[in-house]
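Severity: low
Component: inverse-folding endpoint
Summary: output formatting inconsistent between runs
Steps to reproduce: submit the following structure tokens with default settings.
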């Protein structure tokens, strides 16, 4: 059973860096992924979405005003239509709270990002 797992992992061992000029400036605290995207949160106070296949940065979904000076996105959970972020700080610069982003829009509206 372990051999089968290792063999399967070798088949999918393509390495893609989530880096570049838009990389996180501090430790990654959480990540979620699906077939298309990787969503990461960080001690730098941001949540970023990346293309799973290419590793390209797509956009910041969250950028705390206190990011870089204490604001942290501790954990994230996402679905196809929502992103929930637990945010706070180590030094009191950011109130502890849950941020909920809802990407579910009417069919007439353009969906610019999904998680």
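Observed output (run 2 of 3):
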């Amino acid at each position: 059973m372990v051999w089968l797992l290792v063999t399967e992992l070798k088949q999918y061992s393509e390495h893609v860096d989530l880096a570049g000029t838009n990389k996180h400036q501090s430790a990654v605290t959480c990540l979620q992924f699906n077939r298309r995207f990787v969503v990461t949160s960080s001690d730098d106070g941001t949540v970023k979405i990346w293309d799973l296949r290419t590793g390209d940065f797509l956009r910041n979904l969250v950028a705390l005003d206190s990011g870089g000076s204490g604001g942290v996105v501790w954990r994230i959970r996402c679905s196809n239509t929502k992103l929930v972020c637990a945010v706070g700080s180590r030094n009191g610069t950011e109130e502890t709270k849950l941020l909920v982003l809802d990407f579910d829009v009417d069919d007439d509206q353009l969906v610019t990002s999904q998680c």
